[in-house]
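Loading example: each entry is read as two labelled lines plus one structure line.
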Amino acid sequence: MSHPIDKALRERAARVIPGGMYGHQAVGALPNGYPQFFSRAEGPWLWDTDGNRLLDLMCAYGPQLFGYGNAKIDRAYVDQMAAGDAMTGPSPLIVELAEKIVSMIGHADWAMFCKNGSDATTMALMTARSHTGRNGVVRARGAYHGSQPWANPRPRGISPGDQANQHFCNYNDVASLETAVAAAGPDLAAIFAAPYRHDVFVDQTQPDAVYAKRARELADETGALLVVDDVRAGFRMARDCSWSVVGVEPDLSCWGKAIANGHPISALVGSDKARGAAEKIYATGSYWFAAAAMAASLTTLELIHSTDYLERIVALGERLRTGLDKRAQRHGFRLRQTGPAQMPLILFDDDQDMRLGYHWCSRMMAHGVYVHPWHNMFMSAAMTDVNVDFALEAAGESFRELEQAAPTLGPNERYPGPKRG
Amino acid sequence: MSHPIDKALRERAARVIPGGMYGHQAVGALPNGYPQFFSRAEGPWLWDTDGNRLLDLMCAYGPQLFGYGNAKIDRAYVDQMAAGDAMTGPSPLIVELAEKIVSMIGHADWAMFCKNGSDATTMALMTARSHTGRNGVVRARGAYHGSQPWANPRPRGISPGDQANQHFCNYNDVASLETAVAAAGPDLAAIFAAPYRHDVFVDQTQPDAVYAKRARELADETGALLVVDDVRAGFRMARDCSWSVVGVEPDLSCWGKAIANGHPISALVGSDKARGAAEKIYATGSYWFAAAAMAASLTTLELIHSTDYLERIVALGERLRTGLDKRAQRHGFRLRQTGPAQMPLILFDDDQDMRLGYHWCSRMMAHGVYVHPWHNMFMSAAMTDVNVDFALEAAGESFRELEQAAPTLGPNERYPGPKRG
């Protein structure tokens, strides 16, 4: 797999984009041989700029739930764009979409729409502070809630005030949750929770029902609001808020990515308890009321509501997981496959600087499969058993090649370490 | 002009959207008779859900520079969407778009793309803090730099830390700028500036070259970065950064709205001095690398580069301004028309609670023209002299009706006051 066009683009990019690329789609911390740029996408496939076809297990880092270029969803976008998209006021679709979300999400009595997942998490924080008149936030160490200054995972450009009043616990650790809530004391405004532990670099863990219920109780006891950040996992765990699987309803939940199959829209969803506080915050954006992404989201939600997409992506994920384990063992590797099968993370045992994982990913890429060494992946409903078997065949070859290369692999210079993310 | 469908939609919205609507497109603080929802848009026209056609002088609050549904721009969006939009990596268009911006904006050596204007202003703040290792910000009282917590114009849901280290000056007032910079002292990271004073509710003022040059000097003396927030005015003042009209180049500028004619994209643009700092911040979003809006932006920028759109919107704005003055005088009203003619704000003299302005706007709406009583408006290149004359005819009628109604107008209950933003 050769990348002369990608290389030339990177040289141009280095001149006009800081660092050549930025954010979660920069490939600087990914294995050798990963293209930076893509020309085309269709169903479960991506094509890089050099014409190599890749089975994409990242699904655009989540947004692709029904496959690239889903005809129904894109048609809804294009038709609404022709009628009116970003106008001087919203279209009726904002009402229809809020009604649809309220009908699908158990705790939802209302919705507000925005563009980034970060917009939704920031509005959740503001709503909780508006509701309580307090400032404190409890959240789990290592959990990602977006790149706005209050949640940004890196220190550069962040001022102390941005992240003041935050208290950290360990996910699924009730005692540490109680300690953090106690530390916030009478100032607690919000408890933020990821739907499950989907931190980068580490094994994923499902939510513990005892932990989730204790978070609900602590919010109720202190008068704080409970927020589930479903931006990444939303509608891949359930046809409802992801914490419905452990029987806990938050006051607020944050949505994005999959809700419009890649078209730009996100949402803050809340219960009646939080409505008055949400009314009082000022939150807006130039394109938040644009109708085309709302049309795409309505079509996506209807597919979520009426198809077996969820059972299919779970089955695809399980087929992948079982097949990978079998093939890894055959070549003497033990994998740690964690997270919901439909949002898999694949780590290698005894792989401190991820040199095994990186080399295996490089080989997978060479065989036409885009896998990520340290971020959870995503199954889409556009994938089939044939696609999974294609990935498994590539995996078998890649394990075989890794077995040969492993004894001579040097330190992994690209591994950014578990602190980054 | 009747709005039964709009009324029914508002009743549904009140159940599923906090306050029935939120943000800058909520019409609660606008005059009687303003529809909340729109069904269709084309060229300079909007249609509300009850089928009333309106000449739209708001241009979606700025994004519409070449008219709703511009065929070339929308075709670029749709064609790129069919190839690939939000993928697992960016398309080559991100490089082309950065190159195009660097070629068009004098101070630009690089660009980063995002979704909201607020994303760009927040990244500017982070870049300045990253560059200096300091926290302080100087900005003008009443200037809007987005709705993120650090810049949010209202107190609800904002914690003290969000807006710490900020020092306020008065726009165009060199002494107050110097005082604010002195107050920030050795902690100054950034001086933010609007391209001109386009605050809501008050007369607009062009940038004073002495003020702009002093801001540049103070940034250089202190090592802080100078940021021009061109989200609202960008490419309506110049085919370059708006402060090019006063001969001052900032280190960073923020763009959005008009750069893709309503398709969702914004940008932080910087000079080489700020490149290293921009490389080190972590900034990203789910849809920031999506290619379709970049295709639309490339086409929009080419129209900006190669057509006389700017001269045309200036001429249209001047025709409107002259015509309005003449018609207002005929009925005994004195207008304060401020700002660049192509971004007009129309206030009435001796109109403390804006009862005259609100009534006149209501009448304009009844005659099929959407004007705003306290936010600057926007001319678009899709407008013609015929459109302006249509607005002027409506204005003549509306002044006449206002003259009759003025003596009996009661207090304006909807006027939110100049403190609201």
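Chain B touches chain A through 115 residues (CB under 8 Å).
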